[in-house]
Specification:
Blueprint: E1 3-8, H1 15-24, E2 34-39, H2 45-51, E3 57-60, H3 77-82, E4 87-90, H4 93-97, H5 103-116, E5 119-124, H6 128-132, H7 136-148, E6 158-161, H8 175-189, E7 197-200, H9 205-213, E8 219-222, H10 229-243
Parallel strand pairs: 1-2, 1-8, 2-3, 3-4, 4-5, 5-6, 6-7, 7-8
The structure holds 2-phosphoglycolic acid (PGA).
2-phosphoglycolic acid (PGA) binds near residues 203, 222 and 224.
């Protein structure tokens, strides 16, 4: 399977910076050995798409579940699609833990993305205290169980396993930790089939190759290290070499 290398820019890189990123982003492997995906902020999506010089897919970092309406500050899946997005991140840990997004809301967003023809990348992951309490499997099964029903019949989707304690902290799960969690996610997806399961949480050029070589790890979702075009290119190259 071609490894997915996704960059989540979070609230970084406005339209000008998005253009500058792509004028410098030159991964050595442009031979299709990885699938590149970018999640710019909504306001930079058009500039990013217009300035990308490598084959890549683009998505939004969040959507609302309604197609339109009185929802000040929100973006619908339909609008994201019209603006050029083909994927949507859903349930990122910052959405869950800073903005209080619930499993039920994640599920509604997954349904909305699928209806609008966006590929959902649904994020799951445990808190440090949940891991320490031996609740990894229970938490992942609950999170996946909340949205699995909305994915029945959906042609393409992905899941990103992002342990909350590893996001933006410099702490990374070991390849063994990732393989264990990805195995649980895959089991919980059950009959939904073999969708890519990405790892996220302090991925860097130095650990990306080992992570994507672990069983059941089909790619990476990168935050901080996706902001620098040279660093992100090195991650893509590491994943391309590991996958070939
Ligand atoms: P990080 O973020 O790579 O900065 O840890 C990952 C993510 O939040 O998707």
């Amino acid at each position: 399977m071609v490894k997915v290398v996704a960059g989540n820019w979070k609230m970084h890189h406005g339209p000008d910076a998005a253009g500058r990123f792509f004028s410098r982003f030159r991964p050595e492997e442009e031979d299709g050995s990885v699938r590149l995906v970018f999640f710019p902020p909504d306001l930079s999506l058009g500039a990013a798409i217009a300035s990308a010089r490598v084959p890549a897919d683009f998505g939004v970092q969040n959507i609302h579940w309604e197609p339109a309406g009185a929802r000040t500050g929100e973006t619908s899946a339909e609008m994201a699609r019209e603006a050029g997005a083909t994927l949507a991140l859903i349930g990122h840990s910052e959405r869950r833990h800073i903005f209080g997004e619930t499993d039920a809301e994640v599920d509604r967003k997954v349904g909305a993305a699928a209806r609008a023809g966006l590929v959902p990348i649904v994020c799951v992951g445990e808190l440090l205290e949940e891991r320490r309490a031996g609740r990894l499997e229970e938490v992942l099964r609950r999170q996946v169980g909340a949205f699995a029903g909305s994915l029945a019949g959906v042609a393409e989707f992905m899941v990103a396993y992002e342990p909350v304690w590893a996001i933006g902290t410099g702490e990374t799960a070991t390849p063994d930790d990732a393989a264990e969690a990805h195995g649980i996610v895959r089991n919980a997806l059950g009959a939904l089939g073999r969708a890519p399961v990405l790892y996220g949480g302090s991925v860097k050029p130095g650990n990306a190759g080992a992570l994507v070589s672990a069983p059941d790890v089909d790619g990476v979702l990168v935050g901080g290290a996706s902001l620098d075009p040279d660093v992100f290119a090195r991650i893509a190259e590491a994943c391309g070499s590991a996958g070939s």
